[in-house]
Task: inverse folding
């Protein structure tokens, strides 16, 4: 059974007005328990709207979202409990910080779940550890933290709810390469340690290629591909036609392949080295060391 | 350094002390000259001092030690401030926070209006500037309805309308999607080539630096290395040691070369990398 | 969604009213509102209603838009009408215990309702046909003489311009922050008044913080673009009065004179 499944999911903005716009169009996909799913698509492809229907922030115009097999809108009054199960980290999540201390802010979610103060704090501390926030920072005001720390504190605020599914919308936007790598490593470590499902929405194909097991490609409100990461990026030219890129390394090997060289598409530089080494040896390009 | 349009001479800067903290020095004696018409990419981490340095070039910040000159004008001279800011425009990271007016063309007019340019001349400059960034058709739109890339282009037009010699862009693409990034980069390259405007592009995307005339890498308030993109990116080991990215094409060629394959020192993009590999790979069988 | 709210409600167009000088529009709207109160009898009020109908027709704005702006104040109109209905003097028409309705009360209720409706419609014409920037621009120029009294006219106008520019941005931001807090289980829809006010804190604090950040950025961006106050500043768009504006003023003057004449000739209708 899928942890999350959508059936004919459609979302129309401003339904019934002259300005209505179908953002998500009959999307039926299943997200497997414990997988790391990447979602790609250019701005306006409907991916942001799509993920907001997954935790009930937006109610589908038609179609259903099933969480562990149950329609999340079966009891609209209990929609809040869905948000604890499907944790959502928005773009620039540091803009949501508001409490006096970092610890209190991370406790906001668990507190809303009705946990006792002690339980909430325990979860908050565990979440802080996952994102690599030092203990001494927890007593500080969130507004005193550096940009990268704020971002991690905000993500901890969602992780602390201990959701079955963690959805991250562009979590690395605006970070420098160092901050980006650190954050993604931490998310990946969290994924492995908790075994929970992670959905990563990103414009960075390099990041998706490095971390995602499978990739969902959205275009003009539709789910156009859902497959293993390697298989999706192997269709590089189709992605380019949708205005998407593939990682540079994938593009290099795809180009070689199109020129007739017997190479398989790869996702990382490491893989490319492995792929090319035997071929280069065969070409006799090795010079004396 | 006498031929430089922008020049920083032994510039140091410390952010003033806050409450119980000590003042924090972010630039330690930076020397940098930028020639007229040059396209310079300034790379570095957050906190490397690159933004702080950029703000010295239009007198938004004044050096605590050393001197900054813009076309020979000393930025410390208060009476030259407006003239310096007219000559060197600064575009900021967040496109939402730098547009002033509710209509695109009125926003672009803001700079020239402040300079007291006569109205018919403003009209002409606004139209020219909007055409130069490809936003003329949107001149009557409201900024909040534009995409990030479009907003950033309007912000650039707002600077162009002041007829500057140089534009400094402080991470103008950090908040944009890939399409927006391409739009903005294409725009600044065309301004550099077409109008001869000097460009200082601050970024942490290495692929944006590939197209520059010169790359300056900053780390911890100092210049770590500089040169043409090829010179800088061939120093893969140095960049990696400072946890800076290199383009994947460059990294692949560097790694294979290190394994002893006879590849060039540096490949900047996909095409160069493919060409270099093709020379060594056994010829493919005809299919 | 919050961001659907549009402020200023400007509807672009090329009608006679759209093409008028915003300064003239602003001044005339102000004059009309004054004369709505000068009109003390139904005769005068009828003149103002006639004037309003003419303006409405010339504005080229769909009638439905005007109904929409009336709908928003329907409650206020009914409420004031009801109050006046019971607090009039004159011949008793209906009564029950201590409540009574008089013919004077009915007259008052109608008179006041029509007055409020006219007031709203006149100001709607102004906001429908004049862009917010034109409005602030007009205000800046009309208020210019006040500079003699050390009123910071330019600064006020600049603040209004910026406020108008950032209203949609901040609404969007509010939307985003609300979603983010809801995703953390914030409950903004249930509970008593106290609970609801409390639930706004997680939205208001981030909103304030981000507004300050924006203000800081904007101030820097303005400095980069050589902003140094109103001194020596020119404007791209010059305002020009044309024959159209002269004609409008003339027509308005005739109607207003009529209202004054009515006030002098006929007895007051308000009791």
Result:
């Amino acid at each position: 059974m899928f942890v999350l499944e959508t059936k004919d999911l459609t979302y129309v903005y401003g339904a019934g007005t002259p300005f209505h716009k179908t953002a998500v169009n009959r999307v039926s996909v299943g997200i497997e328990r414990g997988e790391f799913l990447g979602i790609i698509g250019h701005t306006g492809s409907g991916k942001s709207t799509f993920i907001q229907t997954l935790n009930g922030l937006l109610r589908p115009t038609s179609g259903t979202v099933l969480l562990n097999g149950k329609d999340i809108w079966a009891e609209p009054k209990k929609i809040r409990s869905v948000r604890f199960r499907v944790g959502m980290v928005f773009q620039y999540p540091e803009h949501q910080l508001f409490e006096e201390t970092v610890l209190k802010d991370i406790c906001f979610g668990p507190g809303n779940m009705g946990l006792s103060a002690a339980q909430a704090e325990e979860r908050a501390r565990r979440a802080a550890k996952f994102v690599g926030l030092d203990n001494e920072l927890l007593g500080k005001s969130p507004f005193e933290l550096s940009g990268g720390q704020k971002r991690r504190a905000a993500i901890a605020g969602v992780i602390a709810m201990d959701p079955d599914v963690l959805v991250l919308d562009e979590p690395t936007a605006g970070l420098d390469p160092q901050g980006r790598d650190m954050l993604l490593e931490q998310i990946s470590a969290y994924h492995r340690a908790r075994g929970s499902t992670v959905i990563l929405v990103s414009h960075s194909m390099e990041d998706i290629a490095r971390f995602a097991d499978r990739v969902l490609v959205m275009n003009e409100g539709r789910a156009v591909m859902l497959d293993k990461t390697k298989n999706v990026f192997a269709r590089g030219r189709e992605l380019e036609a949708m205005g998407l890129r593939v990682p540079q390394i994938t593009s290099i090997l795809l180009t070689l392949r199109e020129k007739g060289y017997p190479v398989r598409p790869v996702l990382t530089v490491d893989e490319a080295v492995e792929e090319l080494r035997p071929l280069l040896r065969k070409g006799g390009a090795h010079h004396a060391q | 350094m006498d031929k430089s349009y922008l020049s920083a001479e032994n510039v140091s800067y410390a952010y003033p002390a806050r409450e119980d903290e000590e003042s924090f020095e972010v630039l330690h004696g930076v020397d940098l000259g930028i020639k007229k018409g040059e396209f310079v990419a300034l790379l570095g981490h957050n906190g490397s001092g690159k933004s702080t340095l950029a703000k010295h070039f239009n007198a938004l910040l004044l050096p605590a030690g050393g001197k900054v000159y813009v076309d020979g004008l000393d930025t410390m001279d208060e009476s030259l401030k407006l003239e310096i800011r007219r000559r060197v425009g600064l575009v900021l990271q967040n496109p939402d926070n730098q547009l002033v007016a509710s209509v695109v063309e009125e926003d672009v007019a803001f700079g020239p209006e402040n300079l007291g340019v006569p109205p018919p001349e403003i009209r002409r400059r606004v139209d020219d500037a909007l055409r130069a960034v490809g936003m003329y058709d949107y001149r009557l739109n409201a900024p909040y309805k534009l995409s990030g890339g479009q907003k950033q282009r309007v912000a650039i037009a707002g600077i162009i309308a002041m007829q500057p010699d140089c534009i400094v862009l402080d991470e103008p693409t950090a908040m944009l999607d890939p399409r927006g990034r391409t739009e903005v980069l294409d725009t600044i390259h065309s301004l550099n080539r077409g109008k001869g405007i000097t460009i200082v592009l601050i970024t942490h995307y290495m692929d944006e630096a590939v197209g520059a005339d010169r790359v300056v890498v900053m780390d911890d308030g100092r210049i770590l290395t500089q040169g043409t993109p090829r010179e800088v990116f061939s120093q893969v080991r140095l960049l990696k040691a400072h946890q800076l990215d290199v383009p994947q094409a460059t990294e692949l060629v560097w790694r294979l070369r290190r394994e002893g394959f006879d590849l060039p020192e540096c490949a900047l993009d996909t095409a160069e990398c493919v060409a270099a590999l093709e020379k060594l790979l056994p010829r493919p069988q005809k299919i | 969604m919050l961001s659907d709210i549009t402020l200023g409600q400007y509807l672009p167009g090329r009608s006679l009213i759209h093409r008028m000088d915003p300064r003239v529009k602003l001044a005339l709207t102000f004059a009309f509102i004054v004369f709505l109160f000068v009109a003390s009898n139904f005769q005068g009020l009828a003149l103002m209603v006639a004037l309003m109908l003419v303006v409405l027709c010339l504005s080229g704005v769909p009638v439905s838009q005007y109904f929409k702006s009336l709908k928003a104040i329907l409650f206020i109109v009914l409420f004031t009408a009801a109050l006046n209905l019971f607090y009039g003097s004159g011949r008793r028409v209906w009564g029950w215990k201590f409540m009574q309705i008089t013919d004077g009360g009915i007259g008052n209720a109608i008179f006041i309702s029509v007055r409020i409706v006219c007031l709203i419609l006149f100001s709607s014409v102004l906001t429908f046909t004049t862009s917010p920037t034109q409005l602030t621009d007009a205000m800046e120029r009309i208020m210019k003489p006040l500079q003699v009294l050390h009123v910071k006219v330019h600064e006020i106008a600049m603040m209004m311009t910026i406020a108008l520019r950032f209203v949609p941005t901040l609404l969007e931001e509010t939307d985003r922050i609300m979603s983010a807090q809801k995703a953390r289980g914030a409950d903004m829809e249930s509970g008593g008044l106290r609970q609801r006010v409390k639930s706004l804190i997680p939205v208001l604090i981030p909103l304030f913080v981000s507004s300050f950040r924006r203000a800081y950025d904007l101030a820097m961006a303005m400095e980069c673009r050589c902003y140094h106050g109103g001194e020596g500043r020119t404007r791209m768009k010059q305002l020009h009065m044309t024959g159209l504006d002269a004609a409008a003023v003339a027509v308005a003057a005739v109607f207003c004179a009529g209202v004054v004449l009515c006030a002098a000739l006929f007895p007051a209708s308000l009791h």
